[in-house]
Write a structure and sequence with these properties.
By secondary structure, the protein is α+β, with helices and mostly antiparallel strands. Helices cover 41% and strands 20% of the residues. The mean pLDDT is 83.
Length: 422
């Protein structure tokens, strides 16, 4: 019966079996490849999940918490600076500063936002971006970056109008420095500014935008004046809006500093200088307390509570150099010793208060010439005019006649070379 089957039918049956076998193998290969791909993808997902939860779990939990809970800095008021009678020389007043939250935008978005902020704040877009980049963590920082300490009411309104277009830009109410009018005692008080990299390195606990003294009493007494910043912990929603207050760590204001200056006497001295180059210092001879220290021309320390341009900074360093403290710098101290020379000369018996001497353009000692002020003499003058003109050649002659031993004795009697009074 088998032999009765046609050969052509047998061939077709065999071909059909081969096709079915080939199709089955193709399906098996495709299935194996598909299952292998799924296994590989699942493996990658499991490995990534393990990395996020096991290896980076603690860090990611902190980041998630910080996305929901935001620490808002609370600047501390600096301590006041007062004169000997309690009158204010430096105090505080309310100001509005601008902070950026770097994680609220991508680096590319911040570049566009910086261009919008630049004309409002009067700060270049490049400088705004540099503030973010200098912050620890850069664009991934969870802490705010202050880019302006004090802005105008017009800028506040402009930022409020563009609030939706500038996510991560916030205006904070704080305080800034207010100084006595017309830059009174500016060289003594100094000025404030944002902490430098060196300041932050020396004080790692400083928050971003920390204000420190940069010169004068503001810098010398910074530890007492600066206080301790606090913070508000607030919960924010997906749109970066505050939903509720979680807690407050209050700021602690700095301590007041009292100087020996007399504000009324300081005002009188600066009025007498009237912007001319010079200095006035008054000291209580009984205690050594400095009552007046005036330098002219002066500057406005309040200018440093705002942004100081490179042009403004160069102006302070050039021309009449208003930044120079002429009470402590800039003048040779030799003329103050003429008081010692005069006292020694009179006490030696060689000269009396009414003695007069001929002054000249210079006095020669060996091959060296010691010149008078202005390279010309003042003629015959006495002690009163010699002090008024600060005549070099007059006191050279007094010193030569009196001798170094007598001058040394009276120098010690007048406290020269000693830090002790009396």
């Amino acid at each position: 019966m088998a032999s009765s089957i046609p050969r052509s039918s047998n061939k077709r049956f065999t071909a059909s079996l081969v096709k079915r076998s080939g199709g089955r193998e193709s399906i098996l290969w495709r299935s194996a490849f598909f299952m292998g791909g799924i296994t590989l993808l699942m493996g990658v997902c499991v490995l990534r999940l393990g990395q996020l939860q096991l290896v980076q779990g603690k860090t990611n939990a902190q980041l998630a918490e910080q996305n929901r809970i935001r620490p808002m800095p609370l600047p501390a008021d600096r301590g006041n600076i007062r004169d000997r009678n309690g009158k204010l020389l430096a105090s505080n007043r309310i100001s509005h500063g601008v902070y950026l939250w770097p994680r609220q935008q991508s680096p590319e978005q911040w570049q566009q936002s910086a261009l919008k902020l630049s004309p409002i704040l009067g700060i270049s877009a490049k400088e705004i971006l540099e503030h973010i980049q200098k912050q620890k963590g850069g664009y991934n920082s969870v802490l705010p970056v202050r880019i302006s300490q004090q802005i105008s009411p017009t800028a506040i309104v402009s930022l409020a109008e563009q609030e939706e277009q500038l996510p991560g830009v916030e205006v904070f109410v704080g305080s800034t420095r207010s100084y006595a009018s017309n830059g009174l005692a500016a060289h003594v008080l100094g000025y404030i500014g944002e902490a430098s990299e060196a300041d932050i390195k020396a004080h790692p606990n400083y928050p971003s935008g920390m204000i420190v003294g940069q010169m004068g009493v503001e810098r010398l007494a910074n530890a007492e004046l600066e206080g301790q910043w606090g913070k508000r912990m607030v919960e924010v929603d997906a749109r970066d809006k505050e939903t509720r207050l979680l807690g407050i760590e209050p700021a602690v204001g700095g301590r007041d500093v009292k100087l020996t200056l007399n504000m009324d006497m300081q005002q009188a001295a600066e009025k007498a200088l009237n912007g001319r180059r010079g200095a006035v210092v008054a000291i209580d001879v009984n205690t050594g307390e400095v009552l007046v220290m005036a330098s002219s021309p002066t500057f406005d320390p309040g200018a440093f509570t705002r942004r100081v341009s490179d042009q403004d900074w160069q102006r302070l360093q050039s021309g009449d150099q208003p930044f120079l403290n002429r009470a402590l710098q800039g003048y040779p101290p030799g003329s103050t010793f003429k008081i010692v020379t005069a006292a020694a000369g009179m006490e030696s018996g060689h000269f009396s208060p009414n003695s007069t001497l001929m002054t000249s353009a210079f006095i020669s000692m060996g091959d060296t010439q010691f010149w008078e002020h202005g390279n010309s003499g003042y003629g015959v003058i006495g002690f009163l005019d010699a002090f008024a003109f600060s005549s070099n050649t007059f006191f050279y002659q007094i010193g030569l006649k009196t001798g170094p031993e007598a001058i040394s004795i009276w120098g010690k009697k007048l406290g020269i070379g000693s830090t002790h009074l009396g």
